[in-house]
Design a protein that fits this description.
Blueprint: E1 6-8, E2 21-23, E3 28-31, E4 45-47, E5 52-55, E6 69-71, E7 76-79, E8 93-95, E9 100-101, E10 117-119, E11 141-143, E12 150-152, E13 169-170, E14 175-177, H1 194-207
Parallel strand pairs: 1-3, 2-4, 3-5, 4-6, 5-7, 6-8, 7-9, 8-10, 10-11, 11-13, 12-14
């Protein structure tokens, strides 16, 4: 018999102070992720994917100093990715894809030098990809597809060692403008460049 958990993640989850692994994927958990989850300082693995969780990702998530795997994907989470995400020195896999997240990718995310997989696709993220993306020297997976990212892709992305010509790199279906860095120009997929054209037209009109 298969049992499915429902209800909310309780605030007193923080009482499990010695917990190192929390695996609650594929349930019917709803409501917010409580701020108290940031008190689980011994947590190494947190998997809440494929639930019905909503609201913001709590700032306290940045207190999980020992976390290496953080899976919040396939929920109904909204709001910005908290700046505190950059306080996770040991994080290797960060998966927020398939939510309703908005705002820009926080620059603090590029401080995560241990990161091997960054999965932010299928959200509503906007703004530009920062030049400091080349700090992610251990990155093997970069999923940014199906967002509203705009501007030009920095040349520094070519400093990454991941295989751009593979499913490990997915950046299609954004609003990213050419010219594209030579290392990825054949792998950017479909991009909505209508705003790029409008910007160029404005510049042209100014020079007339």
């Amino acid at each position: 018999m298969n049992y499915v958990l429902s209800g909310v993640v309780p605030n007193n989850i923080s009482d499990l102070s010695e917990l190192t692994h929390m695996d609650l994927l594929s349930n019917l958990l709803s409501g917010d992720i409580p701020e108290s989850i940031g008190n689980l300082n011994n947590l190494i693995y947190l998997d809440l994917q494929v639930n019905l969780l909503s609201g913001d990702i709590p700032e306290s998530i940045g207190n999980l100093d020992n976390i290496t795997w953080l899976y919040l994907n396939t929920n109904l989470l909204s709001g910005d990715i908290p700046e505190s995400i950059g306080n996770l020195p040991n994080i290797e896999y960060l998966n927020f894809r398939l939510n309703q997240l908005t705002g820009e990718i926080p620059n603090t995310i590029y401080n995560l030098l241990s990161l091997k997989g960054l999965f932010l696709s299928e959200n509503y993220l906007d703004g530009e990809i920062d030049y400091s993306i080349n700090n992610l020297i251990n990155l093997d997976y970069l999923y940014l597809r199906n967002n509203q990212l705009s501007g030009e892709i920095p040349e520094s992305i070519c400093d990454l060692t991941l295989d751009f010509n593979s499913d490990l790199f997915q950046i299609q279906n954004n609003q990213l403008c050419p010219p594209y860095p030579s290392c990825i120009e054949d792998y950017v997929g479909d991009q909505d460049t209508s705003e790029c054209i409008e910007c160029n037209d404005v510049i042209g009109d100014t020079n007339d």
